[in-house]
Each structure stands twice: as structure tokens, then as C-alpha cells.
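User: Show me an example of a complex going from sequences to C-alpha cells.

Assistant: Sure. Here are the input components:
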Amino acid sequence: MNPQDQAFTKVVGAQPASGEGISSPLLVSCAYAFIWLVVLFYVLTLWRRGRSTEREIDDLRRKLAAK
Amino acid sequence: MKKLFAITLPLAAIGLVVAPILILRSPNEVTMGFIQKIFYFHVPCAITDFIAIYVCGIASVIYLIKRSPRADAVALSAAELAVLFGACTLVTGSLWGRKAWGVWWQWEVRLTSYALCEMVFIAYLLVRRYGGPGARGLAAGLALFGCADVPLIYWSVNKWSYLHPPPTVVMTLDPAMRAAFWVSFATIILLFITLLGARMRLERQRMQVDELFMSAAEAGLED
């Protein structure tokens, strides 16, 4: 093996992020928040889709009743 | 449906308040420390994802055999939830891995097969959305592929995985950690039941729209 392959190399530019540097409570909070944000977003889309479908039903019923 | 919501919604709301308290009060794990607390919602999300996948798979088989629109509605609703809980599992796992393993992602068998399963159900939803005529049957076939991936995900840890903890950690959990886990698990399952009920209600409304469109077309009101 080339001795240069085993040599220490200095960091050029920004120091790469290390897992040790990220606080655990922050990661746990992010994970918990992600779940509830995704669920909240899904509930919101369900509500919006439900409202638009209900409007469509009412519209069609009105048209049929008018006929 | 209203009776179901009357039971599951308050219980899920209680769980949402109680689970974080229990998680914070549970002891830290000896090697991983505080980051191990992601386990309390990562694993329930994964189990709920598997349940959603099998609900979708069973409903898809029923649809393929009987061509039942009701079974198709259940399959579509469960597939959306499989994508939702799959995404939660992958993201929470990635955050856990960053601290525990030092990387956001590792191409090892469990993680890769899980990501593949998630992509199968995203493909299911895309086929349903843009597949045109025949999309229901094609999507049902895809759901079966997704189901076939679940045993591979489960057993991959015992056979080939070198990083991910084995599934036995749930059964061998320290008594002081059990309450936090089971309350979180119950909360997420209740949430799944509630969301599945709500999504199926939407699908029933869409069937109603289709019937009304047919009636309107017969009456000469719509093209």
C-alpha cells in the first residue's frame, strides 16, 4: 500500500458534520414533530377532499332535483 | 362510523398527551442514551405500516377475486396510510441512525428493503391517480408485491443486517420502558384506525358522486 494512502489529511473548507455534534433531544423532538406534522397535513388534505366531494354531491343533487 | 370516531378520537387524543410524558420519564438506554427514545414512536409506526400494508394486500386480493368496489376502497385507503406511516418510519429511523451510527442512511438490507416497500406503495398511488382504465387491477397487483416485501423486511435483520437492532428488542424491553412503548403503540394504532375510517368515508362519498353522475347522465344533464 502506498504510504500516502494511510497519511492524515487535513480538512479543506467546512468541517464535515459529525453525529456526535447533534444533540439527541433535538433529533428526538424533530422525529416526534415530523410524525405529527405529517398526520396533521394528511388530516387537512382529507378535510379538503371531503369538502370538495360534498360540494360536488350537493351540486349534482340540486341539478337532479331541478330536472 | 361516528361511533368508531367517538371511541378512537378521544383515546388517541389522551395518548397524544400521555405518550410524550411517559417517553420522557422512561430511563435512558445504557449505550445509546437519550436518542433511543425515538424507538418509542419509530417501532409503532413501522408495525402500523405493516398492518396498513396487509390491510391493503388482503383488500386487493378480495378486489381481484370479486371485483368488489368496497374492497378496492379499503385497499386505496390503506395504501395511503401505508405511505404515510412508511415515511414516518424512514424519517424517524434516519434521525435515530444519524446519532447512533453516525450516518443518515446506510444501504443495508433492512433499510433498503423498507425503502423499496415504500416506493411500491408510492407507485400504487401513482398508478391509481394516473393509470387510467384498468388501474385498479394493476394497483392491486402492486399491493401484493408490497406485501411480499414485508417478511423480507422483518427477517432481514436476523439474516443479513449488521447495524439495525433485531425485532426481539420489543419483547425483551426493560419493565421501566414498557409503559412508554405500549402507550405510544396504542396511540398510533388508534390514529391509524381513525384515519382509515375517515379515508374510507371519503371513498364512499366518491362512489356516491359516481352514482349521481350516472343518474345525471341518464337524465341527460351531464356528458
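The lines above are the inputs; the final block is the predicted structure for all two components together. Residues 37 and 43 of chain A are 10 Å apart (CA to CA).
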